[in-house]
Design a protein that fits this description.
The structure holds two protein chains of two kinds. Chain A is mostly beta strands. Chain A is 0% helix and 44% strand. In chain A, the strands form two sheets. In chain A, strands 1, 3, 4, 7, 8 and 9 form a six-stranded mixed β-sheet that branches. A three-stranded antiparallel β-sheet of chain A has the order 2-6-5, with no helix packed on it. In chain A, strand 3 and strand 4 form a beta hairpin. Chain B has no helices and ten strands. In chain B, strands 2-10-9-4-5-6 form a six-stranded mixed β-sheet, with no helix packed on it. A four-stranded antiparallel β-sheet of chain B has the order 1-3-8-7, with no helix packed on it. In chain B, strand 7 and strand 8 form a beta hairpin. Chain B starts with a strand and ends with a strand. The chains are: A mainly beta, B mainly beta. The A-B interface holds A 1, 3, 32, 34, 36, 38, 40, 45-48, 51-52, 57, 89, 91, 93, 96-104 and B 35, 37, 44-47, 50, 59, 61-62, 95, 97, 106-115.
């Protein structure tokens, strides 16, 4: 199972929007609506910010949103804030009760 | 509150085995899958497998089949992950993480343990 493909880095100024893509195949992202996104600060455990493609757990700001088209899922951060500077990972169900993570994206707030 | 607390850091020589524990609290242990994910230094997250604490069923990523064993002790709400025949590229932080409600149609990981650093070095 190959890792899902994410851009290595994205950046934006405070208040701007950034979008992170997560490209898989018709056997994972394209076939299931079970894509989740995680935020990770250096030295810390990941935190769930989006599940089931578009759903936000309670407590996650609504500036985080998810979507999917075909084999590519996306995470958009609107109104970028300094605290959003972190690594972000997507994860998809990949059939036969397995999961696969993305390669990870570093978000830099300029 | 829901919490996963893992055992402490380990240093092992190549070829040895390591066993990491993960104690759950704040929810019904047997109601949720438990996944294991690892992260090598400076690298991304890698899914390893899960255990169903209710049935003891397991499922592993193909890469780890035969070398990773997941087990549970329901009496103390604890899951164990053992990696055998350690190699230098097994050096990583290992996380346990709560999965979906068993029997539910969803599939995600919500709560994570604090991570356990395993260093493989002679």
């Amino acid at each position: 199972q190959s890792a899902l493909t994410q851009p290595r880095s994205v950046s934006g100024s405070p208040g701007q929007s950034v979008t992170i893509s997560c490209t898989g195949t018709s056997s994972d992202v394209g076939d299931y609506n079970y894509v989740s996104w995680y935020q990770q600060y250096p030295g810390k455990a990941p935190k769930l910010i989006i599940y089931d493609v578009t759903e936000r757990p309670s407590g996650v700001p609504d500036r985080f949103s998810g979507s999917k088209s075909g084999n590519t899922a996306s995470l958009t951060i609107s109104g970028l804030q300094a605290e959003d500077e972190a690594d972000y990972y997507c994860c998809s169900y990949a059939g036969t009760y397995t999961s696969v993570f993305g390669t990870g994206t570093k978000v830099t707030v300029l | 509150q829901v919490q996963l607390v893992q055992s402490g850091a380990e240093v092992k020589p190549p070829g040895a085995s390591v066993k990491v524990s993960c104690k759950a609290s704040g929810y019904i242990f047997t109601d949720y899958y438990m996944h294991w994910v690892r992260q090598a230094p400076g690298q991304g997250l890698e899914w390893m497998g899960w255990i169903n604490p209710n049935s003891d069923a397991t499922n592993y990523a193909q890469k780890f089949q035969g070398r990773v064993t997941l087990a549970r002790d329901t009496s103390i709400s604890t899951v164990y992950m053992e990696v055998s025949r350690l190699r230098s590229d097994d050096t990583a932080v290992y996380y346990c993480a709560r999965g979906s409600l068993i029997g539910d149609s969803g599939w995600s990981i919500d709560i994570w343990g604090q991570g356990t650093m395993v260093t493989v070095s002679s």
